[in-house]
């Protein structure tokens, strides 16, 4: 019952936020006006909203959903509630490789998601290999992840400082970039995002299995390594696509799964769909607040999220100590 | 099951098993005993394919252990480890359902057959009334029963137990061993386990394998293996072995002041 209620609530909140995001901003429009112009087709207002607001909203939704699910998957793979694409360096690895590609091969702009994926996978591999020796000790893994994250962020900033290329202003390594998004971006993130999210949703059973010990799973004839490998690839794909289109977001992958566990439990059959909805909502909400609060100045969504998310996470942790059974 | 000249060393190069030979009789309970560091658990690890021996082979039903696939082996043997992490929120029934995993393909659902086997496993371990309880909230003895129920649901002819009575109080120790004995008798399950307590090993086993320093000191019927000489040799303590008409064999370690 609580679970159904949680789903209903998040769906309603998400819809309301989408409608609010559509109608507010530097060009206000009422809902009825929006519908009328949508139905009648041509209107100057609609054209602007269609080109500026729609892509931004869709990208926010996909970026949020992808990052949240990426967090869920990484937490399952690494058996660590703190694993998250931002914290363990997957996102900054993806960001750095995107930047690298744009610096040296600006003509390959449309392949940036591919470079982002390579970068994210590389960062993940480093974290995994370095923490393997300690038997994937949770603390050690996070420390190594933080080191990898700092390394790639530093490299990215270095690259940006030494190459004042205009192309690169569109990729930031420290903040999200949701302004000036085009329908091309929408196409890329919606195709890869949908694929990644669909695969993740169907793999819920594997995520559940990984809560048992490796030894036990092996006794049950379950191929732990294959499951880990596939889940990690999907997680990196989701994080990479979100980073390459929407920029760096830390936190979504940590905050959303955590909230999800409190509301719908640890069963990934529910946790993954819930994280899709809640992640999509969180990024859209942060972005909408950011662009409407002190308009015309825009505050990047990632900054809004950090400011709200930090205290909120502490609040959640205090409430839910039992979840990880200390 | 046959163990042929098995030697094993961890990465530190220290030999934990030296030319082990042995035979596990079908339908019987075989217990591996020996002091700490004697290689008991290592041997169990080799028998369950968790550890790969550097030399020697293990055969299971006339096939080399190495030729079994992951799933194939999971249909032959079930293993209960000494310490098991219990996922939070997991109910008894759901955990026992994991025993059906070897028979499932990645995305197939549970069938009526799975359901009846899970119910049978729960009934056999006396857990049917507790099937909706959260595993992590049960006592240690009950949790160990749940893991055995999961192993039963695997429907394997072999059951391996690594120190199943560790960390349990004496009531649950006997409770658990009686359960193992009963499963062995009712279903002809071949059981291989590691135990610390000599008296329990005698009381519940058909065969003993006594180990010291990675070698088998003696193997066979408990009456044959558990002599005062062997006990002194493997554990380094003096003990009196007595036989009582009603109670059977029992061992009292003696200490000289």
CATH superfamily placement of the largest domain in chain B: P-loop containing nucleotide triphosphate hydrolases
Domain module tally of chain B: 2
Alpha plus pi helix count of chain B: 9
Q: What's the number of extended β-strand segments of chain A?
A: 0
> Per the principal axes of the C-alpha atoms, what is the gross shape of chain B?
globular
Ranges of chain A where pLDDT stays below 50 over 5 or more residues in a row are: 322-326
Number of E-state strands of chain B:
12
Our measurement of the CA-to-CA distance between the termini of chain A, rounded to an integer number of angstroms, reads: 27 Å
Structural class, judged by helices and strands of chain B?
A: alpha/beta
Strand order of the largest sheet of chain B: 6-7-8-3-9-10
Q: Summarize the amount of helix of chain B as a percent range.
A: 25-40%
CATH fold label of chain A = ABC transporter involved in vitamin B12 uptake, BtuC
**What percent of residues of chain A adopt helix (DSSP H or I)?**
over 70%
The whole-angstrom Rg of chain B is: 19 Å
Radius of gyration of chain A: 20 Å
Poorly predicted spans of chain B: none
Principal-axes shape call of chain A: globular
What's the architecture of the largest domain in chain B, going by CATH? 3-Layer(aba) Sandwich
Class from secondary-structure proportions of chain A: mainly alpha
Assembly context of the chains:
heterodimer
- Give the biggest sheet of chain A: none
